[in-house]
Amino acid sequence: MAIVVVLAGSWLGYQQLTNDKCTGQTRLTVAAATEIAPVVEQAAQRWVTQDDANVNGTCVAVSVSAVNPATMAAAVAREHQVTLTGLGDAPKSVVVPDVWVPDSSTWLLRLRSEASGFVPTDGKSIAQSPVVVAMPEPVAETLGWPDKKLGWKLLLEKMKTDSALRTGIVDPTRDAAGLAGLLSLGSAAGVDQAGLAEKVNALRALAVGSSALRDDLLQKFPRSREAADLATGLSAAPLSEEDVVAYNAERPPVQLAALYLDPVPPPLDYPFAVMPEVDLQTSAAAAGLHRVLQTAAFKDSLAEAGLRGPDGTAGSGFAAPVGAPPASAPAPAPSASAGESNGGAAASGLDASAISQALGSWAAITLPGRVLAVFDVSGSMLTKVPTAGGATRAEVTRKAAAQGLALFDDKWSVGNWVFSTDMVGKQPWKELVPISPLTSARGKLQEAITKIVPKRDGDTGLYDTALAAYKRVQDDWEPGRVNSVLLFTDGKNENEDGISRATLVDELKKLNDPNRPVRMVIIGIGGEVDRSELEAITGATSDGGVFIAEDPARIGEIFLEAIASRTGASQ
Predict the structure, then answer these.
(1) How confident is the model at residue 65 (pLDDT cuts 50, 70, 90)?
(2) Residue 524 has pLDDT above 90, yes or no
(3) Which residues have CB under 8 Å from 22's CB, separation 6+?
């Protein structure tokens, strides 16, 4: 359930709107993550009642609301007519404010990657909370806490070898700390085949103990030191330092240890994001409030709420967990590319691509889906890829397909086609495996991947294949799943015996059925694809997008981004 609480029952500073020092009034709405909202509200109250908030001769009134970041992200996405993986619709009562303070810049990055018009300004951090692995103290002590320095690789090893270690996570599509933990585990696992298997096992273990809300996950930790309770309760989960501080402040029978693992994950950085639609006067009022949130008094208020200042140090009164560093590393300044991705918000050392890949892995592991994977086997797929050690485009595509299949959970159903020209008579596509549950067809699909072999003299029968694949998925459409076509191609349509682009677009538009939606996702391989051609195809459908791997060696990464995205992107 979304948490939406109005902290200020009336506009803070309303009594000043008739102040004779003012020539007018400006109202500023602020939505902040639930744990920091009370502190922001207190600072705003002091500003408007004690400091006589006045911007350019205009009195300022401030309304602060506590809103779960996932709920507000859904509201922003709705306003920009996009969706984010894992988020449903926001309640109609949730409106986009003038200023949003989510718990992490990753929310801004995710929105910016889907909605080109979402370009917030400012975005500088006003607080910080390191991402830690929370463990019941008796469990942490078995790993050498608090004396031993621990790392993510050790946690991965324990997850693999210790069946008594019960891990969990707050759904990373809905929680920034969960996402940071997911990214750290993925990085620790590595990118080779052994690392992929380790990552898959870790994600599936996390999924078993996952929760949609942080409070639900916290309830899974053991409530007593009895052996039976420790044996059945949650053993480890990525959370924020503030979560641990708040949990322990309630004096539970079993305190949580905060493990600060190496390498250190990007912290929650609480960006102060001014929304794109804000006018100049409101933006000036926001800048005035932001100055208040950079004072020593505000930093001390953060400490009382279990939060650090944006530089990683804590104000007076901070109840540091055992073993906490006196100063955590501040979120690094965004690179030029990161700044472009999120409208100036601190990127926390991440980029939208890394986030999409992590969420794509999570979606493949946890979400039920149904996909028809369609692979280009025209002669151009024999082209060698210099960045892949001279492997051909077909070889790097087979590798990406094998890795993707390994990720997909048994809740998925998958089919496999290949296409070129004249594959079955004049028909340009050939079915290798019909869409089938992975519980029964995984072996057949693994074998089919080895048959993604280019037809040396084959051209690209793209239009007929795309239409036939869309029809096939829609004909056997299943409720409760994401029904998708995932088509890989490195060329343009070259089938003289086939339909035209205009015919394909018209037919796809006619097939659109809101009661049976089908995602059409096309991954372009290399620089010879025609972006406008591919976008014309996906644009004729109700959902989907185009992803272009200019460097074919990146197909595996793009594949994961495509699973996570809801609108498509170019790389």
Answers:
(1) very high
(2) yes
(3) 16, 54, 57, 58, 59
Phi then psi for residue 263, to 5 deg, are -70, 150
Helix residue spans in 334-392 (DSSP H): 336-342, 352-366
* Cα-based torsion angle of the residue sequence 72, 99, 124, 568 in order, rounded to the nearest 10 degrees: 40
- pLDDT score for 38: 97
Whole-number pLDDT of residue 331? 64
What is the C-alpha to C-alpha distance for residues 525 and 399, in angstroms, rounded to an integer?
Answer: 14
Percent pLDDT > 70 in the chain is: 89
Report the distance separating Cα 549 and Cα 521, nearest Å: 13
> What's the pTM?
0.81
Is 541 in contact with 485 (CB distance < 8 Å)? Answer: no
pLDDT band (50, 70, 90) for residue 334: very low
Consecutive H or E run containing 31 = strand 24-32
CA-to-CA dists, residue 557 to 82, 317, 357, 554, angstroms: 22, 44, 6, 5
Q: pLDDT class for 504, splitting at 50, 70, 90?
A: very high
Give the contacts of 510 (CB within 8 A, at least 6 positions apart). Answer: none
For 88, what's the count of Cα atoms within 13 Å in the CB-facing half-sphere? Answer: 5
Helix, strand, or coil (residue 444): helix
**Alpha helices, DSSP H, located in 50-175:** 69-79, 106-114, 137-142, 152-161
The whole-angstrom separation of Cα 237 and Cα 139 is 12
pLDDT above 70: residue 3: no
Is the pLDDT confidence value at 298 over 50?
yes
Q: What is the 3-state secondary structure (H, E, C) of 221-286?
A: CCCCCCHHHHHHCCCEEEEEHHHHHHHHHCCCCCCEEEECCECCCCCECCEEEECCCCCHHHHHHH
Cβ atoms < 10 Å from Cβ of 543: 18
Phi, psi of 347, deg, nearest 5: -90, 0
Given a contact cutoff of 8 angstroms between Cβ atoms, the answer to whether 202 and 131 are in contact is no
Burial class for 2, CB neighbours closer than 10 Å (0-12, 13-18, 19+): middle
Task: Check if the beta carbon of residue 302 is closer than 8 Å to that of residue 38.
Answer: no
pLDDT per position as a tens digit, 250-290: 999 999 999 999 988 989 999 999 999 899 999 999 999 99
- Are the C-beta atoms of 349 and 558 separated by less than 8 Å? no
Over the stretch 351-395, which tens digit does the pLDDT of each residue have?
Answer: 788 888 888 888 888 878 899 999 999 999 999 999 999 999 999
**Can you tell me the mean pLDDT for 126-130?**
97
> CB neighbours (10 Å) of residue 158?
17
The neighbour count for residue 277, using CB atoms within 10 Å, is 11
- Contact indicator for 372, 417 with CB cutoff of 8 Å: yes
Closest CA to 363 of 83, 104, 560: 560
User: Which residues make Cβ contacts (< 8 Å) with residue 218, sequence separation at least 6?
Assistant: 239, 243, 247
Task: Provide DSSP, 394-416.
Answer: HHHHHHHHHHHHHHS-TT-EEEE
Determine contact, residues 125/167, Cβ cutoff 8 Å: no
SS3 388: helix
pLDDT of residue 243: 97
